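Quality-control log, excerpt.
Job 1 of 2 completed; input and output follow.
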Amino acid sequence: MQLKQRLSHATGRQWIWFAVWVAMTILFAMWAGSPWILLFILLFLDIYITKFVPWGFWKKSKNNTFRKTMEWVDAILFALIAVYFINTFFFQNYQIPTSSLEKSLLVGDFLAVSKLSYGPRAPITPLSFPLAQHTMPVVGGKSYFEKPQWKYNRLKGFGNVKRNDIVVFNFPTGDTVALNQQGVDFYTLSRHNSNGSAGVRADKRTYGEIVYRPVDRRENYVKRCIGLPGETIELRNDTVYIDGTLLPNPRLSQHNYMIHTDGTQISAELFEELGINKADYYTQDGYGQVIPRSQDLTGVDSLSLALFGLQQHNGNNGRIYFSIPMTLGMVASMKAKPFVWDVIKEKEQPGMSYYYPVNYETGWTRDTFGPLWIPQKGATVTFDTDVDFKVAAYERCIKNYEGNDFAYRDGKVYINGVQTDSYTFRFDYYFMMGDNRHNSADSRVWGFVPEDHVVGRPVLIWLSLEKDKGWFNGKIRWKRLFRSAKIPA
């Protein structure tokens, strides 16, 4: 049958469907800014009108089993393509795994993340299995092909990342992963290993295979954006300052506190009433036994008590609970209990943990950090003063995120083999922090989030599960279902 005959035999219904897909293809090509997408019009022309390719050949089969099987295959393929398209360009599901944003977003919240808020990022590794971030479910192994890899491109969205937005992004230092210890980033593992990264790579029994993951295949994280491109961020005694101006903490932000009681043990019911999860007041001892984060202070001398800001009451040392995360409202409620003597915010001493930049000794802590300038697209950093610090702070941006060769020798910086005293950034960067300030591995630990790592903005909590309860005992948090995930600061 000739082309003219095929065109004339097409029904009005077929022409309508073809016109719908043509319109959608043209609109999508304009949105993506890629005329190559218009080639799909030829595909739709053949599917609906000309039918040179027998797309539905199985529908005419006399073998009922084969026909039924192909119906399932056809439905599954269509579903996978639809899910891939929706997941890539419109919405993505995300589950809160840690308490870094409590009490704004809770562990067990399932979020609908809008890709349209900041504009969807075109796939970097386009050949991947839908709904699998980097590992195939059940069978294991990579859920994506490493090639081809496309350059970063972001389609137009409704806006840009703003201060105090809750943002989902790919974990920046998740480019290199030790498969046996995926909960800790490779660079922190290397910092703790006496032989550095070479020691981690050599010890496969402890760390497992070391793998590289492309940007869009790295773990998804969620934090609140605190610092914007071009700003200078600083923390002084748990308080954030942007360009020297105080930024109030989020209203539901938490810090760790010590609770000093008259010896009374705080009941699980009281912790639950205040919204404190079991994971927040239990820990493991040296034998792996789960025990409360508390200690009877009987017999402890007054000098030791004073070191932690504690006092005896009529010869009674009382009992201490430590590292309990609470909001200011929860602190006030706890202080109001008659058996509570005092509630003291914990303060971290320098050197207790590693903070960004991990390979440069700053003396910074989770409470006192910076000042640190956040790179901005088009802005230039000069390597004329504080060169050691600037190299430590910005080498990763220049080398890992923006793809340049970087070397630092004898006090001089070499980029792509050329000695230079400055560098102009190609990306915008953001400084992300959790609302649970003392229990959040965030930009204070692993540094800046490049713009090409931004995934989207949570817009809806569609399900919320309480891990400490059973299905018939309050596991579903009904009051959180279908609530907005745009939690203001």
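Job 2 of 2 completed; input and output follow.
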Amino acid sequence: MNGDRDHDVGAGGELSDTAFRVFVLMASRRLKSDPFFTDLYTPEVYSPEGLGWIDRTGMTEVLLRHHPELAPALSGVPHAFAPWRALA
């Protein structure tokens, strides 16, 4: 993004406030326009078991399923979007 580094980045952040706001705005628009998250989010498309699995699974579980080596960094973290534990 042009000019992205012209904005101050908060402590521990990688995106400026402006870039983060643009990201959040565009992400919500993409989700609202995706039929698999709107009209097709039904038991007929996903199956009742599939919808249950989606409801029971969070981002931490997805990360650990694909990258089990992250377990020490995610241990005790309330959710995947909170700061992770620092490892030596």
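Post-run check on job 2. The chain has five helices and no strands.
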